[in-house]
Amino acid sequence: MAKDLKTTKFVLDESDVPTHWYNLAADLPALPPPPIHPGTGQPVGPDDLAPLFPMELILQEVSRDRWIEIPEPVRDVYRLWRPTPLYRAHRLERVLGTPARIFYKYEGVSPAGSHKPNTAVAQAYYNKQAGVKRLTTETGAGQWGSALAMACAFFELELKVYMVRASYEQKPYRRILMETWGARCVPSPSPDTEAGRRVLAEHPDSPGSLGIAISEAVEDAATREDTKYSLGSVLNHVLLHQTVIGQEAQKQFELAGTYPDVIFGCVGGGSNFAGLAFPFVREKLEGRDIRIVAVEPTACPSLTRGAYTFDFGDTGRMTPLMKMHTLGHTFIPAAIHAGGLRYHGMAPLVSLLYEQGIIEALALPQNAVFEGAVLFARAEGIVPAPESAHAVRAAIDEARRCAETGEEKTILIGLSGHGHFDLGAYEAYLAGRLEDYEHPEEEIRKALAALPQVGT
Amino acid sequence: MAKDLKTTKFVLDESDVPTHWYNLAADLPALPPPPIHPGTGQPVGPDDLAPLFPMELILQEVSRDRWIEIPEPVRDVYRLWRPTPLYRAHRLERVLGTPARIFYKYEGVSPAGSHKPNTAVAQAYYNKQAGVKRLTTETGAGQWGSALAMACAFFELELKVYMVRASYEQKPYRRILMETWGARCVPSPSPDTEAGRRVLAEHPDSPGSLGIAISEAVEDAATREDTKYSLGSVLNHVLLHQTVIGQEAQKQFELAGTYPDVIFGCVGGGSNFAGLAFPFVREKLEGRDIRIVAVEPTACPSLTRGAYTFDFGDTGRMTPLMKMHTLGHTFIPAAIHAGGLRYHGMAPLVSLLYEQGIIEALALPQNAVFEGAVLFARAEGIVPAPESAHAVRAAIDEARRCAETGEEKTILIGLSGHGHFDLGAYEAYLAGRLEDYEHPEEEIRKALAALPQVGT
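The joint structure predicted for all components is written out below.
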C-alpha cells in the first residue's frame, strides 16, 4: 500500500481504528478550573453528576490519564465507517491555482453523516453497561439527535429526543432519520415535562430553543430512575471520544509523507474541532511547529468576541457553571444555517487553549462560507455541511494567500459532515437570499453584562 | 492487510480502482438483436445515434471487446470514492440469527449518493473529449440528474436537466443538489421545448412523466449543435460503465476468502444490477455455481410479468425499438417511492440473461421492502435508498431461510445508494401510510396489447 502525495485518499485498514482515546488533560500544564455548582459556589463533584451520567463517563470527565482504552464493542461499531478517509484535494488545488497542498479529513462517511457518532456510540455503550434502559437528549438542527438515535439502536436503548420546535417543523428529514433508527422525537417545548409545560403556558406558540430543550431532557432524565442524559459537545469526555479523528489523521499524514502546517476546524461547542486538533496540540506542546485555527461564524463569535469567564451551559440556568469563552447564556445568535455553531459558549478545554495562545480563532460571515462550500462541492464532489464549510472557506483563503506568496503550505481541513439535510441553506445562498450577521457591540455587551458573578 | 471473515469492511486501495470496464457482450453466446428504427423497421446504425451521443459511446454500445480501457481522467474522478467498500453485515446476521454470511457492496459513498456517477463521469468525459459544450438529460426522482450534474461540474460542461414536475415539486433537495453542482434544472413539461409546449397547451397543470421529460431532453439535444444527450440506464454502454462495481467485489471476496452463493440486486432500467452482476455472470458462464437474482417492485414487474419483445424506451415513442422485457411503453407504474424502479422496460442485456435462465427475478411489495430497510438501518446504520432496499429485503428473506435450514450460504447485496433524500418515504412507512400495489392482470394485458408490432 505504497502512498505518496499523488494519492487522492489515504485509506487506513480497519485494524488502524485507534485502540485508545487521547486525553489532552494529561499533557496540559494547567487544567481548566472545575465546574461550579451555581447554588453552593463549590466545585461540582462526581455525586452531583451521578443522576445524569453513568460513572464511567464522569470518571472520564475528570481523568488525567493520557490514554483511555476504547471498549471493544465501541470499536466494533466504529468499524462500520472508521477509519475515515483523509483526502488530498487535488481538484480544489487546481481550481485555486495554489501551490499549497490541501487535505481534508472527512467524517461524513458515518451513517449519520457527521463526527457525532464517535461520542454517541461511546455514551450509549457506557450507559448500557451501567444498566441504563433509556436516554434523553436535546437537539437543534438534529445532527446530534440522529447520531445518538443510531447509537441507541445498536445498543438497544430507548431514546427520547427533545427537538427545538422550529427545527422540528423546518427539518422533518432529520426527525424521520431519528425515527427510522427507532428514537422518539418530540418538539420542544413539549407538554411532557414541567419545564416544557411552563413555557407552553406562557407562550403556546413558542418556537423553542436549545436552552429549553436541554431543560426538558435534563428534567426527564433526573426524574426517572431508568433514564440518563446525554450531551453531544462541550464536556471533556465528549471531546475525548472525538480524538479518534486526529489520531487517524496523524497516521494518514505519515502515509502521505508530509505534515500539516495549519489546521482549520469549525467550532460550535468545540467537539469536532477538538477531535481533530487535540492529537496535534499534543505535538505542538512538544515543540512541533503547527498553526491550529478554530473557525466560528460572525453570528456567534464566542472565541473572537466573547469573555473568558464562568457561565451556564444552557439558557435555562440548570447546568453547572463552566469557565469558558462565552457570549453570555442570554445571548441569542442570529438564525444562520450552521445550526450546530449557534452556541453561546465554548468547550472549557478549547477555551483554555485559545486563552493560552496555543490555538487561534477567526470568524466568518455566512455568504463567504457558502461561496467556499459551493466552490468545494464543484471541485471535490462532496457537499459540505454548513458548519464544516466554515473550515473549508478559511482553508480556501489560506490557499489563495499561498498562491500569492508561492508558499507550499500543507493545509488540513476538518470536514466534519455532509450537507444532505441542509440543502435548504444552499438554496437560499444560490438565490442570493442569505444575510450576513454581525451582532452590534451593544448587544454583545448587554449579554455579557448578564453573566453570573461566580467563582472568578 | 490480512483479512478474514471477521472483517467488517473490505477496503481496497485506490490503486485497485479497475483499469477496464468489463463488456459482457464479449462472452455471451448470442447478443440481443440490434435496436430497430421505428420508421424504417431497419436496425439503427451509428449515424442514427450521432446527433445524440459522441462516437466513443456509440462504439462502446456495439463493441464486442471484452475489456474497454477506462480513460485516466475518469479513473482520476473515480478515486474520489472508489473502490467502494464491501461490508460483511455481522450485525444484521446477529439480528436475524442466521448462519448465512451476508455481504453488501455499498455505492452510497459517492458524493451523489448512488452508483449513478460511475457512468455519469464517463459520459461527461467522452462528451468533453468530443468537443461538446452542453448536455441534456431527464430525471425522475433526481438520482440520475444529480450524478450527471456532479460529473458536468468536474468536466466543465453545461447541463440542463428536465425533471418530472411532480418530483421537482416534491423533492426540492434533489433539485438544489443539482443546482449546487451548477446544473440548470427545470420542471417538465417546460415551455422551453416544442414537446413541452405541446403538453402544456393541452394540460397546463400536467405533473409530467419520464416519457415527456425524455422527449424534451432529446429534442433539446437534437436541435442544438453544441449539445448532446445523456441517459442513465438501459443502454449497453451505461451498463458497461457500472461493471467497476462487480470487479471490485470479486477482488474483495478474494480478500474475504469466500465467494457468493447468491447475489441480489434491484432492477429498474437495469444498470446498477448489471454493474454488480455482469462480472459474476462471466464466471457463471464459465461454470461457476452462483445464483443471481434481480429484484423488482410488484408495482412495476417488467421481468416477472412483462413480455419479451420490441418496444419503445420512452412513453413518447421517440427512441428506437429495443428487444426487452417490457410492460408496454403506455404502462404507468403505481406511484411507489422507489422512483428509480418505475420504468416500463428493462435493459436488453439484462432481459436476454433472464430469458436464457442465467439470472432469476422476483418482485416485492413496498411495505415488505421498507420493513427490511428499517431492520437493516437499525442493525447496520446505513439507511438504504428505497430502490436498494428491494435487494436488502430479498437477502433478508434468503438469510431467514438459511436460519431454518442451517445452510451457511454467502449472500451478496447490491446496496446501490443511501436514502438521505427519500426520508419522506420512510415517514410514510413508519406511519403505516404506504400502500402495496399489484397491477391487475387486465391492466397489464391492456398495456401489452399496445406494443408495437415490429421486428418480432
